[in-house]
Amino acid sequence: MIFLSICTSLKPKARPGVLITPQYVFGQSYNEFVVRRLQRRWIPGALRRRITRAITFMVHGRPTDLGFKPLTHRVHPTTSATIVADISFGRVAVKQGIERIEGCTLHFVDGSREAFDEVVAATGFDMEFSFLPSDVVGVADNRIDLFKRVIAPGWPGLYFIGIVNLDTPINYACERQALWVRELETGNVLLPSRGDMMAGIAAKHRWVERHYGTALRHTVQEGSMIYYAELRSELWRGRRRYMLQKLLALFGDPKRVENDTHSHGLT
Question: What whole-number distance in Å separates Cα of residue 63 and Cα of residue 44?
Answer without folding.
Answer: 24
